[in-house]
Design a protein that fits this description.
alpha/beta; Rossmann fold; 2 domains; six-stranded parallel β-sheet; four-stranded parallel β-sheet; globular; binds D-glutamic acid
Length: 276
């Protein structure tokens, strides 16, 4: 006789999303730290980039993608996009009945730990920089630190095109970093989850004296403690996996990120979103 086993919520996936492939940098960190967890990742490739859009639009997109992750039974939602973290996390926390973890606070913590001279640079999308979210998060930890921010709108399209290491990307990065380097920063926050894919090029332009920090590892640590505090962590003998869905069939970008991050991504599902 078959018995209906109640679902074990610890085996439900961690839901992760970004506007595109950038959030896979966070998914990779989650996978390394939490190999027992299943990760369900959605890249909103139909509407990437988010970074030049208004708060209202980014909120609407994020709530819609969050809903798709809840439909996958996500036990926690990780907003692996700085733009959505800066603009939409407060509203998502109000609406969703699972924990929502963004990437801004983990990135700010990493920067505060790394700086020695108290001068931190932040690069991100226009929307992230305009929101002041990093300044706010860094000053909440230490109001004496100085923060210099610069939007880098051309970087996401270059990275989505797989041009991580290309002279044109080097030129664009050099132009964007010049005003921050002139401020004698010793720490640079990669305040967009796409940027770690171009870490080498950014590191070359920033020079050896500047420490690059990003949110991925710190975000994974925050997710680990959230899951433990809610007794939602998957049992250690469970074998996790990474499932990926996109909102538009643009797999080329994905395969480039898969190689760069040494991820194993099998078949990719499609999910449809309402409107642009
Ligand atoms: N990867 C995202 C971020 O962290 C978004 C880039 C974009 O869609 O503009 O901001």
């Amino acid at each position: 006789m078959e018995t209906d086993q109640p679902r074990d919520p610890r085996l439900d996936p961690i839901g992760v999303f970004d506007s595109g492939i950038g959030g896979l940098t966070v998914a990779a960190a989650l996978k390394n730290l939490l190999p027992s967890e299943t990760i369900f990742y959605i890249g909103d490739t139909a509407r990437v980039p988010y970074g030049g859009k208004s708060r209202k639009t980014v909120e609407r997109y994020s709530i819609e993608i969050g809903g798709l992750l809840l439909a996958e039974q996500a036990k926690i939602i990780v907003v692996a996009c700085n733009t959505a973290s800066a603009l939409a996390v407060p509203r998502m926390k109000e609406l969703f009945n699972v924990p929502v973890q963004g990437v801004i606070a983990p990135g700010a913590e990493a920067a505060v730990r790394a700086t020695k001279n108290g001068r931190i640079g932040v690069i991100g999308t226009r929307a992230t920089v305009a929101s002041g979210a990093y300044e706010h998060a860094i000053h909440a930890l230490d109001p004496k630190l100085q923060v210099f921010s610069d939007p880098c709108p051309l970087l996401v399209p270059l990275i989505e095109e797989g041009l991580f290491d290309d002279p044109i990307t080097d030129q664009v990065i050099a132009r964007y970093l010049a005003p921050l380097l002139a401020e004698n920063i010793d720490t640079l926050v990669l305040g967009c989850t796409h940027y770690p894919l171009a870490r080498q090029a950014i590191g070359r332009a920033a020079g050896e004296k500047v420490t690059l920090v990003d949110s991925a590892e710190n975000c994974a640590l925050a997710v680990k403690s959230l899951l433990e505090s809610k007794t939602l962590a998957a049992p250690t003998d469970h074998l996790g996996k990474l499932d990926v869905a996109l909102t538009d069939a643009t797999e080329g970008f994905l395969r480039t990120a898969e190689r760069a991050l040494e991820l194993e991504i099998g078949d990719v599902d499609l999910r449809s979103v309402q409107s642009a």
